[in-house]
Specification:
- The chain is an all-alpha fold.
- It is 69% helix and 0% strand.
Length: 311
C-alpha cells in the first residue's frame, strides 16, 4: 500500500514464513521480487484473501502438464489479448528471466493482432519495449528479423502440395481460389485447417472478395507463416488466446487444429485450467465444455479420464 511505512511492511522472510514456501518456489507468473511487493500490499489489505489467491495461482504454476516455456508464452498472449497489462509486464519479466527467448515472447504478443487487434497489441508493445530495454534485450531484436516478405521467397508450391491429402487436392474451389488470391495464403491455410480453410475462404470470398483477400494475406500468408514459434506452441497459444477473450467459436476450431497437430488433450485442458486464477471460473467452465464436446465427438474422452456427465 502506498502509504505503508518501511517499518510496518513485512520483510521477504516474514512473508515466506507467513504464507508458506510454495508460493515463493513457484511464483505465479511473476518474479520473486514482484511477488514480495504484491504480497506485502495484499497482506495489508486482507491476509486471508492474499493466502487464498496466491496459493491457487502458485498451485497451478507447480503443475508440470505444460513446460514452463509453453505456459509463459500462453500467458503472455492471454494477458495481451485481454489487455491485462500489469499481469503482462509481470509475466514478461518472469519469462525472460526464466530463459524464454525474447523473440518468442515478442511473437506471442504479435500473434494477438489476429484475435485482439491493434488496440491490444499496441499498448502491449509499449510494455514489451520498456521491459526489453530494462533487461538489455532491445538492441538485439534489430538482428535476426524476418525480411519484409517473410518466408515467401523460400516457399515452394510443389513441395507444399505434396503434403495435401486427396480432399484438399481435389476440392472443387481450391484451384479457382488460388488463382484469385495466390497460393501462399491458401496453402498455409490447408496446412493448418485442411479443406475447412478452403470452404471458409470460399464463403468469405462470396461475401466480399476484396476483404477476403486482405484477411487471407494478413492472417495466413503473413501472421501464420512467420514460423518464429513452432507449430504446436503457436497453436496452443492461439487456443489460450481465444479462451481468454471468450471466443469459443474460434476456440473450437483451434482445439481441433491442436489435436490434429498431436497436442495432447491434457495439455489443452491445462490451458483451460489456467483460465481459472486469472480470468475466472465462468470462462474456465465454458472453455472446458467446448473441449469436452470435441473430445466426446472424437471418441477421446478417455484421454482426460472419461468423467461421468454432470447432472
Amino acid at each position: 500500500v502506498s502509504d505503508q511505512s518501511d517499518k510496518s511492511r513485512p520483510t521477504a522472510d516474514q512473508l515466506k514464513a507467513k504464507y508458506g514456501a510454495e508460493a515463493f518456489q513457484h511464483p505465479p507468473s511473476m518474479t520473486r521480487s514482484r511477488l514480495d511487493e504484491k504480497l506485502a500490499q495484499w497482506d495489508a489489505l486482507d491476509q486471508h484473501f492474499a493466502k487464498t489467491s496466491i496459493a491457487f495461482a502458485a498451485g497451478m504454476e507447480r503443475r508440470q502438464v505444460l513446460d514452463k516455456r509453453t505456459r509463459w508464452l500462453v500467458q503472455i498472449g492471454q494477458f495481451t489479448a485481454t489487455r491485462s497489462f500489469g499481469h503482462l509486464e509481470d509475466t514478461l519479466r518472469a519469462a525472460i528471466a526464466g530463459g524464454v527467448a525474447v523473440r518468442e515472447a515478442l511473437e506471442s504478443i504479435l500473434l494477438c493482432q489476429v484475435y485482439a487487434g491493434d488496440t491490444a497489441v499496441a499498448p502491449a508493445l509499449d510494455i514489451f519495449t520498456r521491459v526489453a530495454r530494462d533487461l538489455g534485450n532491445l538492441a538485439g531484436l534489430r538482428e535476426g528479423q524476418l525480411p519484409l516478405d517473410g518466408h515467401d521467397r523460400e516457399r515452394s508450391l510443389e513441395a507444399e502440395r505434396k503434403t495435401w491429402n486427396a480432399e484438399e487436392e481435389n476440392h472443387p474451389r481450391r484451384a479457382a481460389l488460388m488463382q484469385q488470391y495466390g497460393w501462399l495464403g491458401v496453402s498455409t491455410g490447408i496446412k493448418y485447417r485442411g479443406a475447412h480453410h478452403i470452404n471458409l475462404l470460399a464463403h468469405r470470398a462470396a461475401l466480399d472478395p476484396e476483404w477476403a483477400g486482405l484477411w487471407l494475406e494478413f492472417t495466413y500468408q503473413r501472421m501464420y507463416s512467420r514460423w518464429i514459434l513452432d507449430d504446436k506452441t503457436r497453436v496452443i497459444c492461439t487456443v489460450g488466446d481465444t479462451f481468454a477473450v471468450g471466443d469459443f467459436v474460434q476456440a473450437h476450431d483451434h482445439i481441433v487444429e491442436a489435436l490434429a497437430l498431436g497436442i495432447a488433450p491434457r495439455e489443452i485442458m491445462e490451458v483451460v485450467f489456467l483460465i481459472g486464477p486469472y480470468f475466472g471460473s465462468p470462462r474456465m467452465a465454458a472453455s472446458l465444455k467446448v473441449l469436452e464436446g470435441i473430445l466426446a465427438k472424437q471418441g477421446r474422452m478417455a484421454e482426460i479420464g472419461d468423467p461421468p456427465p454432470v447432472k
